[in-house]
C-alpha cells in the first residue's frame, strides 16, 4: 500500500498573493496524479483552511476532487470541525454528528485511523483521557494500522517551542499508546511546516512540511515554490512500514529528491 501525504495548505479566501496557495495545492495534486502506479490514498493531515471558513473549504474540496485516487482530510488547529462537516459531510469517510473529527478507513490493506488532536483550548495538540480512549478503540481489532493526525507527539528540537501539545503529559501518554500498540505501522503528522522524523518507541512518526510554499520554515524554506509531498510505503502482507519518500519536483515536473 502507498499513501501520499499533503498538509497545511492554508487555503485562504480572499486568496493570498494571487492565489499562490491554490496553485501550490493544484500543482501537488497534478504531480500525484502523474505517478505510475498511483498511490492507494491521499491523506491531508490538517490546516486545510487558513481560517476555517466555509468558502475556504469549498476551494479545498474543488481542488482535492481533481485527484484520481481516494482522499481524506483531517483537521488542523486552523480548521473548524463544524465547517469541515458541512463541506465534506456527504463523503463516506466524514464523521457524523458533533465532537471530534475522527474516522477510520478499513477498505485497504492497512487500517487508516484519522485522530483529531485539535479539540483543546488552543492551537496546540490535545489528547486527554477521553481522546486517548477513542484512539485505542479505533485501533482495536489487530489489523495493521497507520495513524494520521495534525500535531507531532514528540519534542521537535528543530523549532523554538519543541512541545506542541497543550499539556506535555498528554503527548507522552499518546506516544506511549502508539508505541505499545502492536498494530501501528507509522504515524503521519504536519503542523510545524518542516520535514522532520521522530518516533514513539519503535513506531516512526513522519512530519510533512506544508504545501503552502510561502509558509515553509527551517530547511523547507529552501524548496521555494517547488512541489513537495511524502509518499509512504507499507507491506500489504505484514502491514509494516517500508519507508517514506520525500518527493520534491521542480516546475518542469522533474523529481529532484525522492
Descriptive labels:
single chain; alpha/beta; globular; 22% helix; six-stranded mixed β-sheet; 258 residues; Purple Acid Phosphatase, chain A, domain 2; 23% strand; 12 strands
Q: Concise description?
A:
The chain is 22% helix and 23% strand. It is globular. It has a single domain (2-257), classed as Purple Acid Phosphatase, chain A, domain 2, CATH 3.60.21.10.
Any overview of this molecule?
Helices cover 22% and strands 23% of the residues. With 258 residues, the protein is α/β, with parallel strands linked by helices. It has one domain (2-257): Purple Acid Phosphatase, chain A, domain 2, CATH 3.60.21. Strands 3-2-1-10-11-12 form a 6-stranded mixed beta sheet. A hairpin with a 2-residue loop joins strand 8 and strand 9 (203-207). The model has no long low-confidence stretch (mean pLDDT 96).
The number of helical segments is 5
Integer count of domains: 1
CATH class: Alpha Beta
* Mean pLDDT reading: 96
What is the CATH T-level topology? Purple Acid Phosphatase, chain A, domain 2
* Strand percentage: 15-25%
CATH architecture: 4-Layer Sandwich
Q: Spell the H/E element sequence.
A: EHEHEHEEHEHEEEEEE
What would you call the shape? globular
- How do the strands of the widest beta sheet line up side by side? 3-2-1-10-11-12
- What's the N-to-C terminus distance? 17 Å
Low-pLDDT parts are none
- The helicity comes to 10-25%
How would a textbook summarize the main sheet?
A: 6 strands, mixed
How many β-strands, per DSSP?
12
CATH homologous superfamily designation: Metallo-dependent phosphatases
**Which structural class should the secondary elements be placed in?**
alpha/beta
Radius of gyration: 17 Å
